[in-house]
């Protein structure tokens, strides 16, 4: 793992400046009636799960260009996740993907404990065929026209629950690529009926203290219709299944221009918001690093979450879900965790009393200015202090680079093969 | 009204060709196992409501360019609507907009009867301020922060119901422009709460045999958030109100790329599809003539409606909702009614048994080809025969032009003023 | 005008805090090798033109809700523009729109001088019909099928040049709404040919020291095709006209997801970027206040402008072009000018040497982080100091409200009528 | 290859019906002043190239699900392409992709001759790394920051030209995935400069009778910026290179809502339209079968091509470019070729004199109706007759299935492996 003396040396070089910045920010916030210590405490309480698969280099259907030292096993992935949490103190849990991460649960628990991590929601995979698989998902899984294929997909999800129980997870996220590429290829209504039937079978196998998350996506890998295409269909699904079913919002899974923060507010009102997959995007499901393309959008999502944080029963599962194609995945996950945490802290310093007053008076200009004032506050000193106090790095990317981790693991992990994605 | 001898003369000139075309099509359909007479009967059973306001020239925020003979009153509008139905036999009802069409109900009933029309859903208007209005809707109506403004908007809707009862309508369509232009301007959650409270007050005043339609729209006139922004929110509204509340789908009110036919299928499954506002569009809520920009999309919507036409309790209110900026509005409404009817008939000749078989076998190519085969069948002879048999015009636009209607009314109606839309 | 003692009193109350903030920021920037004084000087050199029409409340095709004290004449508008510049020191010029602002040039010059303003680009209007106009623009203007209508539109543009010469303007911006609403309505190719012919006739009348700006827009008011639909067509136009012709980029005039900063870079390379219309948007040409919806996008545009600011011959005309529907227009213009200036200053503190280094090494993560570090720097102290030193207000909205300007002019200007936009 | 007796038997079973349909359509067209024989001759003159790689099953970044009998070599691919042409008589040429199709040119020529095909444009590949490649394209190819990498990419393109010369090709299509995933990752301007330099080096190696096609794409595989992002940049490229450089339009490579037929018209006016990559899409670059999602859009593109077919120097290279994920690729290519041909014939029966008249009079309704009348004409009898007369199949998919081709090659070709696309 990362040598703590490196983190400490890196921090030592930055601490005086940080103190000055923290004090100046504290004074400025105090003038606005805000206690910087309370904000730092909120920052320290923040955590977002890291996806095990995010530690490998991702790709597109055109190509994948792996770097050196790619993780070759779930053990390697957990090592990398441990590095991220050691440096950020913001990613205490890992989310597994089955069958990619299938392993002896006891070993998983042991390894996670070793690197200081817990397990978040389990993720099933019925959008790819595995070598040993009886029936193909080429034409769908939970919504397939063939009952035996649906049953196979249901059983895979039940197995994910079993593995999850053994390692201390408490939720299952279901995302399927089922849909169609051509008008007419499937019956839009009957395909949804079949999907609901399969989901009910999975729901029936859900332990009492578990939740199941339904994740919507407008398109890809299906290009004409997708069974769970939007939050409306996801809501219908969660309503039909029962109280343990909730909706998961992936920021990149919407039509162009859609106001995602409204969806957040609506799902909270419906009592059905379960959590998030964080990432950023400009065009489609680009799976870019969180907060790198539209940081204000990320802030606006958090603004809803903070405004409604006392909604009855709200218990959100936050996860990063990104594809790291041109960066060191560890660095992208570090940056993303920090950017998500940043938006949370920025949203936490909105002057909600003033905002509510401006809203009540329809003073649109000042209401909007109140939000923007929070967004443009540079809360880096808060985030840095939170990390410092938690024993992590003031500048986690610098510390990571200083640690030489990537070169170290590149020396002992096999070189991954690139390849052509979905194109021959 | 239109002189029947003109229609008859126009029809006489086309009848021989029509007979030949009808016979040729009949033979071709027979080979596919389809009875042309049954399809013609379906075409004759079709009806779509015309919006009273659609008979005037519309405009954009930049300008409005009225033509000659614009209707100056609801009486004029009903005359124009009567012309459309006389020529198409496809638009038996008119949908009124209050306060634009406010008049003595007895006179409305009498005039409608005179021109051979009934009344469809009532439409309320809380997106504009009227001269005599106590409170402004600048910052919202049913969701306004001010209780008195909400009450005013509720009462306006109750008045629409009263007028509707007096003229034989059985439904109220509620569309509001409420929302916000800037992040922070309103609380997305509290604004929706206020909207639901207002809608419940209207619902409480709904007669037992009435329905209330909730209409969603992604944006415009509000440009950052809209209270009922999508079908998910519309569904939540209808669910919260009760069994008499349903969702209305306007084809132009969605984000780019959204698969509207899926929404249709979902709302039918939820038992909450109430009806449609038909139009076409390329960019936003363009309100173009139905079937002129993406005719295949219109067909795919109808394909769902025909596939699911036996869904329990399905009772749809179909209306045209367009803005006619560069055409004679009567002509645009004629063309639109025919195009909607065309899509209905095309969807009716889909070989559903073959389609279901291809879908069951995942023969995507043949399933898609089956739909396309129906779409590309030129059903003009069926539509023309349906009109001929109903006493309408084989070529309704030609007959309309031959009738000289527009010149006639231009001589007796005042010239409308143009103007600059929302721009000074 | 605004009483200077009010500005001074408002500034006095904020000056101590500003000094502290400015010093803290200066120290922090110095650590990054940046001189806060140089940045303040850049801020003070910044200017963006205000559109005369922006001082009135705008609207949509659904409605317009004017406030109190709307300007009733170009004199009133210039007064309002003078207020904005007095408070921000960032809007030294006004852009006129003919015929809305037609008046005796000598009086225009005199009034502008009185309120401390100059004149920016002239704007012609051939998207509305004026009462005294011979031919209608319902079916187009510079690209109309009728030669006499095209001639009328050309002559109107030539008249705009004449007025502009008399008041010291040096540029003409041409934006037309010409296009079509239906496939087939116009010949896409011949309509463009006619447009180019008309533009050449205008170009022939352009003084040697003038420029003509071609402004593209994807849609609205035309909904199927628009003659100058994108920057490619605008570039072809500018290339065909000659060296005095350049392209103007309105931030809201693009298809969803389009990368506007790339267009900026391309047009600069082609030697054809003439200037900007600033605003913000979420869905279409929403004309919202600059920097309120996607502030990072505004920053990225400025990042290109700063990176390429030494491109040969680059001489940009910056203007705000917004519709203020729910705010006091003066306040929206103040906020917008400040947000545009903010993005300029943020882009000015990008560490370009470091950025170029990361780019050269394909260190995508650090390159992106370098841009974000500039963006999230809160440069308010710089902007406030720039205003203070220029005799304007540290907090211009607060000073404006303290001045009571709106109430004062509401008492002497007539109440504007609202209305229904493009809808009857 | 396909046994001709099967085609003949299949045709024999359909010939009587076809004769009846052809005669009925001929009579109907004659009434509209159209000669069906001339249209059939046009259909017979039509040809579109097939991409060699299109004969294999494609995939997404999530997965690829190959079918049986996938082509394992360029010989297999040419066999499959030969089958398509034998059945449709509409795909006389194949477009190769290097290095996927690299082989001895003499053998390529011989094999192509054997299956009755010629060679269309060559396609280079610098968006994937090949096993033996010196430098990686992870961070770009022709626009890479590293000169040696750019040189390698240039040389690969020059090699494609060499291979093309040896097999009788006359054009090179250049599409690169270069761009960036994050704001700041690259200098948008310098990256384009480097691209242009590389393209000039390729252009310098272009034989006199060759053309080079620049293909734009808004995004993917790069997700923030793409060097040749739209037709404007493609046009600048072609202008800078010289007369042998032209622009290639792939129908799926545009932002949502973009009017592609306008781009076609503009590029023709600029003398820079080189050809097309045909496919269809609903969301992004979905690469679906041509004419299956928005058939009217395909028609409108062809409407421009037919309207402007006499433009000086117009010489278009038509190719299909699709990914066949859920169908037999041969069947998808058959259907696509037929749909493209269909749109061409439909566009050919537009009454252009009537259309021009309506356009001149601004009779928007009748102009639009004129286009739609052509589109909804079912020209199947023309296409079927064209195939019959050329010795191909009236119903090519039925004949293909009857031939048992897929089962036959599945028995002799190795089973392809599926896989996980760009995702681990």
UniProtKB/TrEMBL annotation, chains A, B, C, D:
PANTHER family assigned: L-RHAMNOSE ISOMERASE (PTHR30268:SF0)
Naturally occurring in which organism (per UniProt): Paracoccus angustae
Pfam families linked to this entry: AP_endonuc_2
SUPFAM superfamilies hit by this protein: Xylose isomerase-like
Leader sequence segment: none
Stated name of the protein: L-rhamnose catabolism isomerase
MF terms (GO), sorted A to Z: isomerase activity
Entry keyword set: Isomerase, Manganese, Metal-binding
Entry's transmembrane regions: none
Domain Xylose isomerase-like TIM barrel, chain residue ranges per copy: 92-287
Entries under NCBIfam families matching the protein: L_rham_iso_rhiz
